[in-house]
Design a protein that fits this description.
This protein is mainly beta. It has one helix and 36 strands. The strands form nine sheets. Strands 8-11-12-13-14 form a five-stranded antiparallel β-sheet. A four-stranded antiparallel β-sheet has the order 1-29-28-27, with no helix packed on it.
């Protein structure tokens, strides 16, 4: 019954209007997505990309668990940790792939041979749903639907609950900035820990009482963002001590379905309403100051993505139970924009950065007058200028401290992130 209830909750969540990420519009991608379902026999309930090891993808479809050693070109069935339970999520750390379960027994297992064999752990949460994992420093955390947060400091061999002060144990997501951990809960809003999870405190100053059913908490740069199931969107610049209402750009419509970070890149799936609900996928390489729409040829009318995962220069996305028959799609990360400038010439030199008063810009790709625009994190232009030579100096002394993005009218020149002190 617990598993069925969890499935019904998730189906309901897929249908509701969600929240959105801050961003600046960027170029549409040229690369296309391709289906990679060879070997997957049952897509009636959709598919989910669960995670990846160093060289294998892990996915589920129907009652089966699958792996691929060739970037999704072909898939083979593997035995899950518990028969007929294809797991809920996955995480790879230090040679081990951890599987989070929805089960009546133990809910964490790991494999160090890509799923050939599974190992039980000591102290795993039981009779719950492990929604995801989060890594900070030497510790790995698992967050659950009704038992709060568990921590391992020995690469997953043993786990223990770390819930002191965490008065709401229904944790939906986790994030971190520096040494601070953040837990997004359903019913209790945000909690913060500055001691590796040993103790937690509520972190809801500025969040309306009706917005304590959280959905996502995540970092962009040194700022924290939080969205609630009821539609609230908030931003904190002081490690969650205070929150302010955040007005997101219309580019991302009415909802935020998924937030993932792979290396230095952020990926999000968003929801729009244009007569029907349509989803889009975006990526950012500059902490949310600029976003590229990589939806491409995906069928946005029934995208309902389930599991964004990056591996070996590709990003993968599965269509979930709301869009059966679609399966798993793959897109090359490297082939997004045509006519790229050679790598040695890509990034203009901008200094000093951080800047106080004057900012010098030097570019090696100057081919005549080139216009630039400085935009803030909300996408509003705060300064415009032109480069009539390879070097320009602009006065930023009147700008408020914070992060900005320097953009160009030449789409081949990548934007540059600027910090004003």
């Amino acid at each position: 019954m617990r598993i069925l209830a969890e499935i019904l909750i998730r189906m309901s969540m897929l249908r509701r209007s969600l929240i959105v990420v801050p961003a600046v519009c960027a170029l549409s991608a040229q690369a296309q997505w391709s289906q990679v379902n060879s070997g997957i026999t049952d897509l009636a309930q959709g598919a989910t990309v669960l995670g990846a090891t160093s060289d294998h993808l892990i996915a589920r479809a129907g009652w089966n668990m699958y792996r691929s050693s060739n970037d999704g070109d072909s898939w083979s069935v593997i035995q899950p940790p518990v028969a007929f339970n294809s797991t809920e999520c996955g995480y790879f750390r230090a040679g081990r792939y951890f599987a989070g379960m929805s089960a009546s027994g133990d809910c964490i297992y790991f494999t160090n041979d890509n799923g050939d064999t599974w190992n039980s752990v000591t102290g795993a949460p039981t009779a719950t749903v492990v929604r995801g994992f989060h890594e900070l420093g030497t510790a790995l955390y698992a967050y659950t639907s009704n038992l709060g947060i568990y921590r391992s400091t020995n690469n997953g061999d043993s786990w223990q609950a770390v819930n002191v002060g965490l008065s709401n144990l229904n944790v939906f997501s986790m994030g971190s900035i520096g040494t601070h951990l953040f837990a997004c809960t359903i019913g209790g809003g945000v909690f913060v820990s500055a001691d590796a999870g040993a103790s937690w405190s509520p972190s809801n100053v500025g969040i309306a009482g009706g917005d304590l059913n959280g959905e996502h908490v995540w970092r962009m740069g040194n700022e924290l963002y939080y969205t609630a199931q009821g539609g609230g969107k908030y931003r904190s610049t002081d490690l969650g001590a205070n929150w302010s209402v955040w007005a997101w750009p219309s580019l991302f419509g009415v909802g935020l379905l998924e937030v993932q970070r792979f290396g230095g890149n952020l990926y999000i799936e968003t929801r729009h309403f244009t007569g029907v609900y349509r989803d889009s996928v975006y990526t950012s390489s500059d902490e949310g100051l600029g976003w590229t729409n990589i939806t491409g040829n995906l069928n946005a009318a029934d995208l309902n993505g389930s599991g964004l995962v990056a591996l070996n220069g590709y990003v993968f996305l599965g269509y979930n139970m709301m869009s059966p028959g679609q399966g798993i799609y793959r897109r090359s990360i490297a082939t997004g924009i045509d006519d790229l400038i050679p790598a040695a010439e890509q990034a203009p030199a901008v200094y000093p950065n951080p800047a106080h008063d004057l900012l010098t810009i030097q570019t090696s790709v100057h081919q005549g007058p080139m216009k630039y625009t400085l935009v803030d994190i909300a996408g509003v232009a705060v300064l415009n200028g032109s480069m009539t030579s390879a070097t320009a100096v602009c006065d930023v002394s009147a700008l408020a401290p914070g992060a900005y993005l320097l953009r160009w009218n030449d789409g081949r020149v990548p934007p540059v992130r600027i910090i004003k002190q």
